[in-house]
Amino acid sequence: MPQVQREIDQMHALAASDPSGGDLLLTERLQTDWQRFLTYTQSQTFLAAASGPSRTDTTVSDRLESLSQSVKSTVGAIDAAEVQQANTARNEAQSTYSRSLFLLRIFVVVGLLAGATAALWLTRDVVRRVRAYSTLAARVAAGDLETRTDPRGHDELTALGETLNMMVTQRASARDYQPPRPSSRTRCR
């Protein structure tokens, strides 16, 4: 019986730390029922019935049954409260999981949209500059050595545009350069 009292005391201490107070009421009820049972087991009526057959056996049996039912009822209420708490915790966990999954999906969609937008912007910029360089090359191939491109940025395509401009300038300079004609005296024989 001291073991039962220790377990009830542990339950009471645990329930006292619960801010809702619902478990505390149940453990106090269990403690009261247990004290009534212990008090009755030390009463003269119980001790007389426990010492051998007597005319109070039926009364003692009925009283013990009543006390036992009271304890069983309290333990059942504690079990029901624990099941309800477990269900509430499970529902809260499921709700938190659902919200987290929803937020994760939103973040993934936003990330994908941001990535796709950045890729589209970068692709448009690259394609625009490559088309400009292609147009420059076609004009130079057609003989227009006065055309130039306007490279902007700080990447490899900008360096390519600057190199194309230098190439066109050098080609125009080479075309404009007329080497001196050899005189008739300096002919090679």
The percent range for helix content is: over 70%
The tally of helices reads 5
Low-pLDDT runs: none
Mean pLDDT across the residues is 84
Major sheet summary line: none
Number of strands: 0
Count of discrete domains: 2
Characterize the overall form: rod-shaped
Give a verbal description of the structure.
With 189 residues, this protein is mostly helical. The chain has two domains: 2-106; 113-177, no CATH class. It is 78% helix and 0% strand. The chain has helices spanning 2-16, 22-41, 44-50, 57-141, 156-176. The protein is rod-shaped, with a radius of gyration of 48 Å.
Please outline the helices and strands.
Elements: H1 2-16, H2 22-41, H3 44-50, H4 57-141, H5 156-176
Short description:
This protein has 5 helices and no strands. By secondary structure, the protein is mainly α. It starts with a helix and ends in a 13-residue tail after the last helix.
Keywords:
single chain; mainly alpha; 2 domains; 5 helices; about 190 residues
